[in-house]
């Protein structure tokens, strides 16, 4: 089964051109499924059926795996089984009989506008790293970029003349995102006053640099978001995409259309973007309950 998984991953990389991070995730998901089948005494993929897949998902849920991870694992298995069917290794695809459990989709956690403002005000802009951190936070919130995308952002990807940013997203797909004036001002100040200091006479194509003049890691990005959230005394559980979720939610709350938000987020399926409309509905319910005379 390991050989079949590797053949599938090679197909995703070479023919589909999926991002390396996606392929790594799919490998982990499929190996977890393979381990589960092995524990049940099933060594051949041809001996599996839809019940094994459902049992695996329920097993994951019982272990406390979050709903997004379970949904992603189901997506990985769907693609794997379709690949095996197309290659005529299997006659039928058992995942075709399984509906995606919509109730497992978690409504994204978001920050309020006030919480975002507080977060963005935390970096000390009198300090070189503070200028960088301010620019990072402003960029994440202004564009809704994934942390993995912001890490790989290059200096030349920012166009101040037209106020746009070029982002390379999942599957090496390019999208253009508007960049607000406040984010532009923060990035310009960082470029003028902090980035040359961080470079220390070296060269780098990447926009955001570490104190050693190297590309910042995803872990470093995430650590600084958590640090400033703690400084801002934000009590909500902080997750890597929380500024991305807040970006989408705040746009929709102010009347942005779903298709435009989908394009800016880089979602291939609008149903993913529609998750943010549930946040709006919850907010409307809270407002109704708080202010209506007969809630």
Overview of this protein structure:
There is one protein chain. With 295 residues, the protein is mainly alpha-helical. It folds into 2 domains: 103 residues, Tyrosine recombinase, N-terminal domain (DNA polymerase, domain 1), CATH 1.10.150.130; 157 residues, hpI Integrase, Chain A, CATH 1.10.443. The chain contains 14 helices and 3 strands. A 3-stranded antiparallel sheet has the order 1-2-3, with no helix packed on it. α1 runs antiparallel to α2, α2 packs across α4 and α11 crosses α14. The longest helix is centred in the N-terminal third of the chain and has 20 residues. The protein is globular and about 65 Å long. The termini are far apart. The relative contact order is 0.10.
Sequence-ordered SSE layout with sheet pairings:
Elements: H1 2-14, H2 20-39, H3 50-62, H4 67-86, H5 113-120, H6 128-143, H7 147-151, E1 158-159, E2 164-168, E3 174-178, H8 181-193, H9 195-199, H10 218-231, H11 242-253, H12 258-265, H13 270-273, H14 275-291
Antiparallel strand pairs: 1-2, 2-3
Helix pairs in contact: 1-2, 2-4, 3-4, 6-8, 6-11, 11-14
């Amino acid at each position: 089964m390991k050989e079949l998984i590797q053949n599938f991953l090679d197909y995703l990389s070479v023919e589909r051109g999926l991002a390396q991070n996606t392929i790594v995730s799919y490998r982990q998901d499929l190996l977890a499924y393979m381990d589960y089948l092995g524990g049940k005494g099933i060594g051949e993929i041809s001996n599996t059926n839809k019940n094994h897949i459902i049992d695996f998902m329920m097993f994951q849920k019982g272990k406390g795996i979050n709903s997004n991870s379970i949904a992603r694992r189901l997506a990985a298995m769907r693609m794997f089984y379709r690949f095996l069917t197309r290659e005529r290794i299997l006659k039928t695809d058992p995942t075709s009989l399984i509906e995606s459990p919509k109730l497992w989709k978690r409504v994204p956690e978001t920050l309020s506008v006030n919480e975002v403002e507080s977060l963005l005000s935390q970096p000390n802009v009198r300090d070189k790293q503070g200028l960088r951190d301010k620019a990072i936070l402003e960029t994440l919130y202004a564009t809704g970029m994934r942390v993995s995308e912001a890490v790989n952002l290059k200096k030349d990807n920012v166009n101040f003349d037209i106020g746009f940013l070029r982002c390379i997203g999942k599957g090496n797909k390019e999208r253009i995102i508007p960049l607000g004036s406040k984010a532009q001002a923060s990035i310009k100040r960082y470029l003028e006053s902090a980035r040359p200091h961080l470079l220390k006479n070296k060269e780098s194509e990447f926009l955001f640099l570490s104190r050693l003049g190297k590309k910042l890691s995803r872990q470093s990005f995430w650590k600084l978001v958590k640090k400033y959230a703690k400084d801002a005394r934000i009590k909500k559980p902080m997750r890597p995409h929380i500024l991305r979720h807040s970006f989408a939610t705040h746009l929709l709350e102010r009347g942005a259309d779903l298709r435009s938000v989908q394009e800016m987020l880089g979602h291939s399926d609008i149903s993913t973007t529609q998750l943010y409309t549930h946040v709006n509905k919850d907010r409307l319910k809270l407002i109704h309950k708080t202010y209506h005379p007969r809630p």
